[in-house]
Amino acid sequence: MSTRETRKSLWTWGIVGGALRDSFIKLNPRTLMKNPVMFVVEIGSVVTTYDLIRNRMLHLSGFGFELQITLWLWFTVLFANFAEAMAEGRGKAQADTLRKARSETIARRIKADGSIEEITGSKLRAGERVKVTAGEFIPGDGEVVEGVASVDESAITGESAPVIRESGGDRSAVTGGTRVLSDEIIVKITSNPGETFLDRMIKLVEGAERQKTPNEIALNILLAGLTIIFLLAVVTLQPMAIYSGSPQSVFVLISLLVCLIPTTIGGLLSAIGIAGMDRVVQRNVLAMSGRAVEAAGDVDTLLLDKTGTITLGNRRATEFIPAPGVKEAELADAAQLSSLSDETPEGRSIVVLAKEKYGLRGRELSAYQAEFIPFSAVTRMSGVDLDGREIRKGAFDAIVQHCSTNGNRVPAQVEEAVKTISNSGGTPLLVSEDRHILGTIHLKDIIKGGMRERFDQLRAMGIKTVMITGDNPLTAAAIAREAGLDDFLAQAKPEDKLALIRAEQAKGKLVAMTGDGTNDAPALAQADVGLAMNAGTQAAKEAGNMVDLDSNPTKLIEVVEIGKQLLITRGALTTFSVANDVAKYFAIIPAMFAGAFPQLNILNIMGLKTPQSAILSAVIFNALIIIALVPLALRGVRYRPLGASALLRLNLLVYGVGGIIAPFIGIKAIDLIITHIGWA
Amino acid sequence: MTANGWLQILLFFLVLLVVTKPLGVYMARVFSNGKTFLDPLLRPIERLVYRCSGVDEKHEMSWKEYTISMLLFSAVSMLVLYGIERLQGLKWMPWNPQHFANVAPGLAFNTAASFTTNTNWQNYGGESTMSYLTQMAGLAYHNFASAGVGIALAIAVIRGIARKESKTLGNFWVDFTRSMLWVLTPACLIIALIFVSQGMVQNLRPYDTAKFLNPQTVQTTGSDGKTTAQTVTDQVIAQGPIASQEAIKILGTNGGGFLNANSAHPFENPTPLTDFMQIVMMLSLGSGLTYTLGRMTGSQKHGWAVWAAMAILCLAGVTAAYGTEARGNPLLHGVDQHTSSMQSGGNMEGKEVRFGIADTALFATTTTDASCGAVNGMHDSFTPLGGMIPMVNIMIGEVIFGGVGAGMYGIIVFIVISVFIAGLMVGRTPEYLGKKIESYDVKMAMVTVLIFCLLVLGFTGVAIVSKFGTSSISNAGPHGLSQILYAYTSMAGNNGSAFGGLNGNTPWYNVSGAFDMLFGRFFMVIPVLAMAGNLARKKIVPESAGTFPVTTPLFTFLLVSVILIVSALTFFPALSLGPILEHLLMHAGKVF
Questions:
Q1: Is the CB of B461 inside 8 Å of chain A's CB atoms?
Q2: What is the percent of chain B where pLDDT is above 90?
Q3: Domain range for B165
Q4: What is the count of structural domains for chain B?
């Protein structure tokens, strides 16, 4: 977890310094125009500055108060810029560490005639093939087309343990900038220069390609609307004030305007978005767009692969149950023979069980002229042919079908044993020899710790969990029950997954899933949120809209939480920002008119000292609150997995009621301070 | 405040609650092709209407077609009314026993805009300006038509929420015809008869003249400022087809009085029963539509949650208005203002002695909640804060039950905004009854809110510093500001009640007021219909524990808060220089 440690130190003076500089660069009106709220504040600041200078030149009275107002208005804009720059700075620092991994590599390109030439890695184009040997960096994203190698991907994932990458199958994708540790592979490059994984990731964390997400756009419209409403309220207040015989100065009116428009959320909105993406990247998930992260927060149904997500990858053999008339040792012998070349964890666990229980030692199959029959999705069996013996093991119906070609029926006791195992959540494997059923192996799934609580939380959040498994329905039901899932899809083939996603979507639901294999690609593409495993195939990675660099399917749940947290942070700060206005009215309105109508002082419930100190305090509070909330915006508000009503009640209490009360205290405190030190 | 007063208010809420469901069910049936007991009678008439007008009742309209049909209909109706007003004095025009002249262009334009928009702002006195023909064919017709249009619009917006993946919102002509035939006409027929039974006038006779037993001497101040004494020996008593117009005036939340004194005149409001009926009827269709909303969207609880929000705001208004009026006038030192069996107590200025404080406070609240605008007392004579309540009710956006139909589509705008904020705070893309609320919907909702603010504050801002604006006000200081602010608020909100004291029959107020009303109706309806059209196109997302429910007390609380905060934040500065300042100055001993 080396990268995560470097991330902790991102709050360095380097970033803060850079952000300070950027705060001024971002004053450029063309940049600021994208943010209507802060743009209005900037225009207000320009107008007060102009008035300030004009008053000075014409030797009009009043300078100290006006100067302070003008300065604090500029600070308001700068603070908002700083928040955004801070979020971007943290991203840039991450990008820099990533960039180091992109250092120029020499690629050995294989030409059409088979000869090899050396070129720089950045010149490689999609479709070209390169040879990479131990110790070399992989020059670009691609797929292993020949060979197998162990690869150090720590530059990307932060995980120091090497991973195996091999041609064919679901572990063929390699990433540019990672290093081959052993062996030699031929890689087919899949991306053009500038479009590699690493390039995309750098752009993403830098915020360079950040596009506003749908909810962010909608919120921006709401904020722009509120800004115009307050602009109207303030602009039309002046004629009413003139009628009432107490016209207001430009400084006071602009102060009121800036205090009323939602500067808090307006100033922090883009920082929240950038920081949200940043949090996703910190968890080693690469999202193709902010839209994908936001969609994750909306997910109604989670499709989770049983293996690796809900259960530990390896099922263990725990028992041999022979068919009537078969000796237990005979079954154990056949089971062991069929599994000796089976490199799957299940296969190995059978060999282990045979050794522990029956003392059967491992044998060298090559000595027997044996032919290993690997598992295939079509036959759903594996086994071995040796000395004319045809030993097979596989799922219940696969073996039954295999044996039925010989007219052999299933003994009732075997069927009984299969049912018992399935009901208990285990997986029965049948073993046959020469199409006679010998008995059943009991494979047990080990459910990961803490998953049940996780699923309970998801249920409270309104998210339905569906387990996807190749197991038969009985087994699937038992595991789903034990792990606390809402539903399961048993004996799932890739097209079943796709059909399930379509069915859920037809009901208007948003579906998220994880996948790694090429055959997952259609489902990943169909799902609203498709989290592909980095260890998976290139096809899967391209079909999904997120890639988990750690290849940990449980990550999907975290992404959902980040998506929700992102929206909640925006909603909470909007509520806070608007709720603040109540106190600001009570500070500024009496200050504006108490001169002409002392009776209005009754509205000065905070007891602010003078009209000038009241207005100044409100403006200062309005500016400082942006800075005060930067950490919250970057971190996100705390997310609790609760139902919608409970969550809303909580957030309304904290940010709504809190938002009404906080400025009363804050403005009063600032008033006490500035009148004490003599600013107003 | 008295037990009797509270009993009246309580009885009102009870009756309103009781009529909500039957009315709501009935309207849902009428507009969803359900069966009603009136079908055998009305279906043939309806078919005849469609055959004569060439309307294909199976034709479904997109939001744009619906809007254009509605606008065309309103434009033509407005022109017809303008024509009648301008021609009423011609010799061959019937039903003009008092021989009223043609209405002047400015006033005719203002009045045409006023009645077309369901505002019924009146810069004229009915009994001294309008012929019976204008009253019946021009004004009463619009009372029906503008209310019918309002119902049609509300139904179209509800369909937008209820339908899924649909491009259409229904057929404007069908919705309008059905609202006329099934809802407004039968109800008004019965109500008018009840009113007549209570002594309300219904005739086409010239005005009566009565001789005083004791001739009165009155002081009048001429335009030259000289005061002269005048002896009055007789009184002209206005007549006319009042009962028939009164029924739709109230039920259709129009509020334009046949007579200048509106529902404070004994001919427009003869007995306590008619008074109570009027108060209930103003809110009954708006209240019923909340049930229709629940029924048509399949979430009856949501309908009640919306009803509860409206009822809470209504109760708050009544309580505040009643409270401030019952407290009396602090400047009347040494005057006994206590309530006793011998006197009503409190501030009785501008109130009918027949109705008293509780009833007038309730009437003032409901008429401004409902964008009705009928009055049985003068809001201008309320205490400053008591007079602020009706104004705030309108500023809230006429969504406390609101105008017929207009209240429904108005509150949906606030629901969309509430649900958007709530949705963000629970971490999901906001949804309203399964419809995702996206940027287009938020944009349209905000445009609607914005237009109202722009009209009220913009026109007030111009008028308050212009000679043509301030020359019409009758009291100086903050009360003068209240008069202008109330006028533009009332017109933009299509309420039509007058604060009183403002001379509206000037070129500036006639023209600016007409635009205030026209924009306040149609510029707000267009974005709402656009939003409904957009909502209709969407898929329905099934509800889950992660969805913020729009059926709970929490939702009601949120909706009330959003409505109050949005309007308070918008109008607080203006109010603080108007009624709030006036109230504070009054306590300091300064009145205007």
A1: yes
A2: 79
A3: 3-203+241-587
A4: 1
What span, in angstroms and rounded, lies between the C-alpha atoms of B470 and B476?
Answer: 9
Q: What is the pLDDT of residue A2?
A: 37
Q: Is A638 on the interface with B (CB under 8 A)?
A: no
Residue B563 lies in a domain: yes
**B106 part of contact set with chain A, CB < 8 Å:** no
Q: Does B447 contact A at CB distance below 8 Å?
A: yes
Are residues A218 and B572, on separate chains, in Cβ contact within 8 Å? no
The candidate with the shortest Cα–Cα distance to A469, out of A494, A489, A441, A449, is: A489
Please tell me if residue A654 touches chain B, with a CB cutoff of 8 Å: no
Give Cα separations from B261 to B136, B220, B267, B498 (angstroms).
18, 20, 10, 11
B439 touches chain A (CB under 8 A): yes
- A487-490 contacts, C-beta under 8 A, 24 or more apart: A489/A303
- Calculate the average pLDDT of chain A: 84
Residues of chain B with pLDDT under 70: 223
Contacts of B424 in chain A (CB under 8 A): 215, 219, 567-568, 570-572, 574
CB atoms < 10 A from the CB of A159, how many?
19
Q: What does pLDDT average to over chain B?
A: 93
Radius of gyration of chain A (CA): 33
pLDDT value, residue A207: 62
Q: CB–CB of B377/B364 below 8 Å?
A: yes
Helix-strand-coil split of chain A, %, nearest 5:
55, 15, 30
Cβ <8 Å between A462 and B449: no
Q: Is the pLDDT of residue A7 over 60?
A: no
Partners of residue A215 in chain B, C-beta under 8 Å = 424, 429-430
% pLDDT > 70, chain A: 92
What's residue A225's pLDDT? Answer: 95
Residue of chain B with shortest Cα separation from A563: B427
pLDDT at A533: 83
Distance CA B533, CA B441 (A): 10
Q: Are A384 and A365 in contact (CB under 8 A)?
A: yes
pLDDT at res. A182: 80
| Rounded-to-integer distance, Cα B380 and Cα B438, Å | 43
Q: How many helices (H) and strands (E) does chain A have?
A: 24, 22
Q: How confident is the model at residue A103 (pLDDT cuts 50, 70, 90)?
A: low
Pairing type for strands A436-444 and A427-433 reads: antiparallel
B211 is a domain residue: no
- Distance, in angstroms, between A450 CA and closest chain B CA? 22
Chain B residue with the nearest C-alpha to that of A220:
B439
Q: Among all residues of A, which ones are annotated catalytic?
A: 305
CB contact under 8 A, A222 and B417: yes
Q: Are A382 and A350 in contact (CB under 8 A)?
A: no
Q: Do A567 and B453 touch (CB under 8 A)?
A: no
Structural domain contains residue B468: yes
B221 in a domain, yes or no? no
pLDDT at A5: 40
**Distance to chain B for A71, nearest Cα, Å:** 25
Q: Is the pLDDT of residue A106 over 70?
A: yes
> Is residue A407 pLDDT above 80, yes or no?
no
